[in-house]
Structure formats: structure tokens, C-alpha cells
Amino acid sequence: MDADATDQLHMRRAVELSLLGLGETSPNPNVGCVLVGPGGAVVGEGRTAPAGGPHAEVNALAAAGELARRATAYVTLEPCDHTGRTGPCTQALIEAGVARVVVAVRDPNPQAAGGAETLRAAGVTVDVGADHDAARDAMIGWLTAVGRGTPYVIWKFAATLDGRSAAADGTSKWITSPQARADVHRIRGGVDAIIAGIGTVLADDPQLTVRTPTGPTARRPLRVVVDGAGRTPPGARVLDDAAATWVVTSDGGGRVDLPGMLRELYDRGVRTALLEGGPTLAGAFLAEGLIDRVVAYLAPKLLGAGPAALAGAGISTIAEALTLDVVDLATIGPDVRLTATVKGA
Question: Which pLDDT tens digit goes with each residue over 282-328?
């Protein structure tokens, strides 16, 4: 195996470790690291711990111990070069005697960037770009959020093939299959916040938590209710103690300032958010250009009537239609899951 193929192989594993940290590390990025000894064997692996804990490089170095000397470190994000809740990863790598560092993505955060230069100044060989696209996709929420100061927003909805989110009598449980609903919980577990509108809270009384077939998980994203007029009932399940909840209102009971809400969420450490509101809230988000990714679960059913999955997006003619780039199509039980990004987001 040539050097490039070897780099790709180990960086691919680092990306897998990165993905395991989704929903755990914010406001830090979900980074993965693999240490490979001079003989070609993997001597340590690590991923970034929840905020305040060790970064991926430090965890990998701890696993490797003395075997880290003269090793190559494969890291999905440029090692940090500043002291925050933890010390700089650059110094940890240098002190451990690592000979080479392969970086997939440069750090866009000016407070933490510069790690490659520091490592090179200490005599460490640094190569940048291996498996860049896969590493970037694994950290796209954090990278996007840090670049603009607002969370990366994923809109999830379920609909019939004719685009109905409920029947004409208002019933909507269940449009999609148990397999699709389990997949939604997987996505919930990888975000920092789950957003719903007051209409959804009043109609469905959702809990908006992460659950598995055996019960709740340890991941507890912040629950956000967009409720301009303050109508959330005191006994709503979204207010229970299963996770923290933020009810967002507005002065005078008017419309909530959605961009302002997202900026405030970012300041509270939220880097990725899942929008599970109904068609009106989804339309408001789209109308203001606040959605980055769409995950649609399409059930092989037809209703012919009932509310649409999207309303009020400010689009009046086909020429104004929002165009999506489909990045994945998958069969989930009997349903189809379509994942797409919004062009220009």
C-alpha cells in the first residue's frame, strides 16, 4: 500500500471516531485521532470528550503511552494551539515525540488555529488535506456554525408521497414506520438542540428527547419551543425534567426573531440544531434562509388531502423555488429517507 493510500486508510478511521462524538462535544468540534507507530501498527485512538474533557489527540496519546514516540498522528481537524479549558494539543503532540501529523481540515477558529505552524516549528512534519471531504462532512455542523456565528440547522419532516404531513382530520400518528422513527432518534442524538413550534407542542405534546427501543439515552439535547405568545401549557411534556428546555417568546406576543434566537443559541454553546416544527415554522425558517440541510422521510402512502409538510415559505412562483442538492437516498424500513442541502445556505 502506497503512502497516500495508507494516509487515507487511517484518516478514514479518524473520521469514524469523529462521528461517534456527534452531539457530545459542543461547543468544541467532534474530532477523531489515530496514532500509527513507525512500524505501521495503530498504537492509539481517541475522540474529543464532552466540553471540558480531553481532546481527541490527548486521548489517543494517553492510549498509546510511550508508543506515541516517532508515531504519525492522523487528526480530522488541525490540532488546537491555544489554552482553553484544556491545554494546547500541539504541545501534547510535541512533548510525546510524535514525528508526523496528518491533518484533514484546517481549523477556521482564529482563537485555536495555527497548530500546523507550531508543529512545524518544533520539527514535526505536517501534511494537510488527507480525506478532507469526509472529515469536513463529519464536522460540517461545527465548521459551519463557527464560520458564521449561528447553529447549523437541519430540518426534519415526515410526509406521504403526495406531501401531506397529516390527514384531513388532523391525525398524523404514524405516517412513517418504526424504523424511520428510530432513525430520527439517531439524528436527535447527534445535535445540540431540538426546535419545535408551539403548534406542534399543542397538537402532539411531544417530549423531544432522544430515545432507543430500550428507553432514553444519555444524550439530552436542549429543547427549544418557539412560542411568540407564551402559550406553552405548564403540563406540557416538553417541560418535564428529561432535558433542559428553552421557551422562546416575543414582546407583545408577536413573531419570534428567528435569526436572533439562533444567535442566542450559538452563544449558549449550540452548534447544531434539529428543526422539528410543523409546516408554518419550517416555512418561516426557509423564508429567512436559516435551513442548511433537509432530511425528509417519505412514506409509501397517499392521502389526497390534509396539511402540507411546508407552508408560508415566501415562494409564489416556480422561478423562486428553493433548489436542493441531494446528498443521500436510503431505504429505512418501508420508507425512503432523502437528505439534501439547501443551495446557497
Answer: 999 999 999 999 999 999 999 889 889 888 877 888 888 888 999 99
- List the grid coordinates of 196: 419545535
Nearest to 175 by CA among 339, 338, 334: 334
The Cα–Cα gap between 158 and 77 comes to 34
Nearest to 112 by CA among 92, 147, 88: 88
| Residue whose entry in the numeric block shows the C-alpha cell 428553493 | 322
Assess whether pLDDT exceeds 70 at residue 252: yes
Q: CA angle at residue 27 from 26 to 32, to 5 degrees?
A: 55
264 catalytic per annotation? no
pLDDT tens, position by position, 205-246: 999 999 876 666 678 999 999 999 999 999 999 999 989 999
Residues 24, 45, 57, 78: which is the catalytic one? 57
Beta strand 324-332 with 215-216 is unpaired
Q: Which three cell numbers stand for residue 244?
A: 433542559
Q: Distance between terminal CA atoms of the chain?
A: 39
User: The whole model's pTM is what?
Assistant: 0.91
* Euclidean distance between CA atoms 215 and 182, whole angstroms: 11
